[in-house]
Please model this.
Amino acid sequence: MFTNFSFSSFLQSKKMKRSSLRPIVYIAGPFAGDVLENTNKAIKVGNLAHRTGLGSIVPHPMILSEVYGKDEIPQEREDGCISTLSIVGQIAKIESSFIWIIEKEDKSLSLGTKNELDLWLAIRKDLGYPYHVFRKTYKEWIEYENSLNLR
Model:
């Protein structure tokens, strides 16, 4: 139970400072199609972000586990899209945040990913923030990971 939880006490107990908190990165990429494969790819890219010092938000497991409803029911899918766009929109308002995009192999974007990116860019532009957008195919993300020698 978190009724007596104190963020300051937590940081002190971990010998942390607020400045040691990680910038946030939202992982965007295709979900539909092979949902398990696409979810696993997003998780792996999210883990890469974590290992490079970012706090990653990966919506795919939440969509897969039907947190936002059933993806195959049109109204629930629409509500789920609004939820994920709401998360993207809030993260985009944080100046130090990033969006990492998993492109399809042909370098195109799924409709959902395109909507997330469009919203991100519009908010960042309105706020005058740097875009902080990184786009790669899954294969390119793995090549990037290998180039960092993180293992």
